[in-house]
Amino acid sequence: MTNRTLTTTRCLHQAGATVLAVTGELDHHTAPELTRAIGETPFGPHAPVVFDLSGLTYCDSTGITVLISASNHAQRTDGRLVFVGLNADLMRVFRIVGLDQILTFRPTLDDAIDVLESPGGP
Fold this sequence. Notes:
Strand order of the largest sheet: 1-2-3-4-5
CATH class: Alpha Beta
CATH architecture: 2-Layer Sandwich
CATH superfamily: STAS domain
Helix content: 25-40%
């Protein structure tokens, strides 16, 4: 049996966005950890959120569902959410399943902050 781990770290960016860094494997074993962190993260029109996925090494369908749920939560609260730092292999999978059509991805945190600060950002 593999020891799957996922850690989430939350911090406030100087531009005012909450950055939730996700590290490890996101699957049906670890998804509750991210779900809990999302529930503890403020979302709303004046509380933009960035998911830093640069440390994410694996994501299964349960993990994808959690990311979509976070996006839906942001929409319900009139919040803005951007995902950053996804490695090329995971980004390829996310494109194949069409996540790039419903979620906002940027390569870096700085790029995400630029999008969030622009009028009409995500």
